[in-house]
Amino acid sequence: MKLRRLLAACTALVLLGSIPVANASAAPRFTNYVALGDSYTSAPFVPLPDLLSLGCVRSYNNYPKLLAAALHVRLTDVSCGGADTTNMLQPQSTVLGTAAPQFDALRPDTDLVTVGIGGNDFGVFGSIIDTCPGLRASDPTGAPCKAHFTVDGVDTLRAKIAQTQTRIAVVVQGIKARSPKATILLVGYPKIAPEHGTCPSVLPFADGDYSYLYSIEQALNAAVSHAAAAGGATYVDTFGPSTGHDACAPDGQAWIQGKDINLLRAFNYHPRYEGEAGMAALTYKTLTGAPATVTAAEQSAWAAKARTLAKQAAASPQALEASLNRVRTSAQR
């Protein structure tokens, strides 16, 4: 027990970084925290893998676990790679079995819930990742992906995101019905593409499709934010504060892995440890009222921790292979 407390304290220290002591002590008190979400929450390949999470590919260092350590709260993490809003009420098939509906984890005494969901609804994220890189060769300086998803003048992905907003709002109401005392936070998605510039060796998109990817993720986060406002939940903005930490950023600054799977860092197009730590810190700051910014000291601490975790993962090849087997058949968000 003492060792567990020490590890939690160390994790919280790395996470909180330069948060002023006054704000850290102002953290509200919670007892039972439930984390819901997709693979931006479960964090596949972020060391070290939770092998007991089966096909949900959760990490022991995803943002719910980092946040729980900082808050000293009991956590039930049912996030699952590939989940969408329907998996709040319906079982989810994974490569290693069936995951229970995520709402099953909610209880009347649950007093904190975080939700990271929406990117998989109607296949929006998967459609971009599966389609856009393959179109780059046809028009490398244009925007062939945007053209592909625009039908009769209508952006079909944006239309799907509008429907996703309604689904997320229903999720908020479902949480309230099951856990009426809970503080509910909807955690947004950090930036994948930069606002300006390109890095085709990391993100193999046509030049004009960088702004398209950026705008689609911006629209997705707006949908999450609007659903939170409509339902009386709190939106955690990770999109704005992740500026400069997109997949094109240098190693140590990037929160998002590029096109290549890195068994020691993250699944492709998914958050690295630095991204999970950033999401946890921004959620913590939202709870405490601290400015939703990322300092250089925080980023440096997270990058150092990521290097340490990568070394630990490299020393556990069996765990890496087991984790790879869990996601080998699909790209999950």
Salient structural properties:
two-stranded antiparallel sheet, alpha/beta, 333 residues, 11 helices, single chain
Write the layout of secondary structure elements.
Layout: H1 2-16, H2 21-25, E1 32-37, H3 39-42, H4 63-71, E2 74-77, E3 92-94, E4 97-99, E5 112-116, H5 124-135, H6 144-149, E6 150-151, E7 154-155, H7 156-178, E8 183-187, H8 207-231, E9 234-236, H9 273-288, H10 296-314, H11 317-327
Q: What can you tell me about this protein's structure?
A:
- Pfam families: Lipase_GDSL_2 (PF13472).
- Keywords: Disulfide bond, Signal.
- The active site is at 39 (nucleophile), 270.
- This protein is an alpha/beta fold and 333 residues long.
- The chain has one domain (24-327): Rossmann fold, CATH 3.40.50.1110.
- 44% of the residues lie in helices and 10% in strands.
- A five-stranded parallel beta sheet has the order 2-1-5-8-9, sandwiched between helices. Strands 3-4 form a two-stranded antiparallel sheet.
- Strand 8, helix 8 (207-231) and strand 9 form a beta-alpha-beta unit.
What would a concise description of this structure say?
44% of the residues lie in helices and 10% in strands. Residues 1-9 and 18-22 have low confidence and may be disordered. The strands form 3 sheets. Strands 2-1-5-8-9 form a 5-stranded parallel sheet, sandwiched between helices. A two-stranded antiparallel sheet has the order 3-4. The protein has a two-stranded antiparallel ribbon with strand order 6-7.
